[in-house]
């Protein structure tokens, strides 16, 4: 998980407080942050961990600087957040390197180590969008296949390979990038030789309700 930021000024402030908040990292040298003026517009996709991180950023900015803050955690997709940043409607948000590498920078090559992924995204966003990324926050997200317990028991599902006999009649749901990211459904489908009847992009809250 990373936060990427629109300007070096904001990067200096928020990277510092986010890293301090996540693990007590040393503060980045700045002028007196209590003398800053302006408003930082914090945003997040409607995913629990990004919402929590966005609120952490807001609280830390409020407590450690003289800047005002606003927060909007109602963005349905990372692509919408990115466009809002490009349009100068928000100033920062937490996100994932893999999502930005494939969804925004349109990378279609082989899977990369996390450090190389981060560097490619950092360099690409600085070059193409004049946006600056913070250092890693220390955890990562991974896609999994999930069914409810009744379905698992009925079809004796224990591994992904067990879906092979049923997937052609089933609908799979994922986030807005899942059906197009090479390291998500396309790569998974090719590796397992399994194709679902349909793959729908949905918000996570709706997925949880639909699968219940």
TrEMBL record:
Q: Name one Pfam family in it.
A: OpuAC
- Which GO MF terms does the UniProt record name? transmembrane transporter activity
Indicate the segments forming the ABC-type glycine betaine transport system substrate-binding domain, all copies. Answer: 39-210
Q: Which InterPro entries does UniProt cross-reference here?
A: ABC_Gly_betaine_transp_sub-bd
**GO cellular component entries:** ATP-binding cassette (ABC) transporter complex
Show the SUPFAM superfamilies listed in the entry: Periplasmic binding protein-like II (SSF53850)
Origin superkingdom:
Bacteria
Lineage here is:
Bacteria, candidate division KSB3
Would you tell me the protein name for this molecule? ABC-type glycine betaine transport system substrate-binding domain-containing protein
